[in-house]
Structures
1.
Amino acid sequence: MTKERFLAYTDAIIAIIATLMVLELPRPKGVSLHAIAALGAPFFAYLLSFMMIWNVWYNHHALFKEVKVINARIYWWTGLWIFVMSLFPLVTGYVGNYPNARLPELIYLLILTIWSISFNMTERELVKENPHIALSERDYSGSYRLVTFGILVSSYIIVWFWPVYVMLTVLFLSIMAIFMQLKVLRLKKEKKK
């Protein structure tokens, strides 16, 4: 399979997943501000899931930018990544409807963790198969991964006492990813000077 076809396929699935998530949002049950405010938790859950997908989609394209070889392991790890991502509309709706309940938050965290692992395994396999890829340009190693891992592990503990912590974790990870992307763009711009 060519890289272009592979990326087009993943792009299409990601677009479908994002569309399904927005279609799952409840509609206001009135024309007042109170009716819109009642959608706070479902909309917040949607916003966080969308931000995670958007950030990782950006990183996915940055990662594949210089890829020349896609082997079967890359194909299967990416397949797992896409499959787990396809569960986002389900778990986003679940968390949005029950933001203070342990089980929905724990399931969301589990999906997020498997999704992250599968993306990292895809990345690892891509770098192994395409050693010319410069990981340092993306700067998503070292302390970034350590902080992310620490936050995810802490979430598995704190969710039992404060379930909404998972959503705050996702918010923090999304913001952290945006700042990392901006840092990479700034570094690339400085290199061109």
2.
Amino acid sequence: MRFTTLRQSLLLAPFALLVSGSSGATTIYDETIQADLSGDPNTYTKIQVQPGANTLILRTGPAETDVEDFFELVLGGLSILRIEILDFDPGANNPGGTRFGICQGPGDACFPSPFVEVLITPADIGTDLLAVFEAQAPGQVTNFFRAGESTGPSTTTLSIVATPEPSTWVLLGASLPMLSALRRWRGRPPTA
């Protein structure tokens, strides 16, 4: 009976990990509280993404203080499933919106203009930016981003949903038979 319980828990572990990873959003960066993201296209602020839902709050503008933010999402074995606009406050001086784009990486590939760019307005709340970028540049989406405007200040709240890459699931699945064999081997009575 104990072995059956162990086997069941090992089989359910990936599902438990998936459910627990998506149960609540983790705020991975809040620019309204933490330090300003990098304004230098050669030095991106690195933001570590966690499994499940991640919240990222960006604040850009006005021109005198914070025109652009450059950041890299550090995935660490994760794949991004979606980047959804949860909220957008254009600010009092920003009738046009905030530009948000993907870049090829630090340096000239993102400056003066990103590889692919969209204009975010309040009407875009609920939009999956990852799907928009994939439609504009199929297979070329990176984890380097730029948000910018010159009037603001505007505040953009994004939800970044990440899950372990398929190779992680394959490794986990391959380890289950090994754990089962180890358990059987340890459960045998010693031979005399």
3.
Amino acid sequence: MAYTDEAIWAQQEGEGSQAYAAFSMYCELGARRSLKRVAAQCGIREAVVRRWSRVHAWRQRVQAYDHDQERQTAAADVPRWRERMAAEVENEWLAAEAMMARGNEMLANSVDATRWTWRDAILLIDHAAKVARLALAAGLDSTAPADVTVRVEYVNEADGAADGASPDAER
């Protein structure tokens, strides 16, 4: 039998209303479905339900039905995931702005009065620019990377070593 995807679980030509009602119940049972359960719930002999299943290709039809149900569920989730993506993009953008502002503030202030170096300020601004570019890309293209890791180290002016690291550690 050849079916169109849209009509495969609809009542088929030659399928009686009782057989179709049994098939509909079979579909609705989901993970608990069995021919024996359909026969018991419909009050029909199991041999009759088996014959209907074979003659009217229930396995093929219920597989298409399940696939369509999964597709509908996934489609219903799309708006929620779009909202989440938009919120994440906004958060990344705000983080980039805050990092950029802090980096510019660091450049404007005397390095001697802070624990920061010029290198720290420049790295922070560089990371802020990267986060901003990723946020912009994600806002335009949902396939863009959604996570960014930024690492900022405090540098000890005396020996040039990052806190907790040796002077030879790569920064």
4.
Amino acid sequence: MKRILFVCMGNICRSPAAEGVARALVMRTGFASSIEVASAGTHAYHEGETPDPRVRQIASARGYDLKGIRARRITGSDFERFDRILAMDLQNLEFLKRRCLPEHVGKIGLFLAHDDGFGVTEVPDPYYGNSEGFERVFDMCEVAARRVISETITSCPSTQSDPPTRAFSDNPS
């Protein structure tokens, strides 16, 4: 089992969006028994809350299910439990690196990569903006999650001989 944790500051916008998109990809490709995804925040501002209503609205419109996602703060055990811990921006990346034990630093990275086609490596925080910012976050999550899940499928020993049952597409359903 490979485990991926998506992390933003409050765990109500970017990281639950990434979790929802990645979960749909994992389910659609038939790797739900091999890949687990989750999300957390670096701060406990919204602990126990559901994702922001704008995130839930866009997720629903795009066919993603965010039911069961509740904001939580990253814990020390997350650094041991998860194989990859992906921050949405540099500020949260630095927080994660300072908080974990040295042996887990290699698990931490940015969710968005240079080659994802957006010209940036940070997913912007849409919290204080309008719906366009939230739509852009989902656009970024859809592209980056495809790459992350594809890399994870390729790196899973249990998946080496089992190709994905469905190819990635733009339609989450």
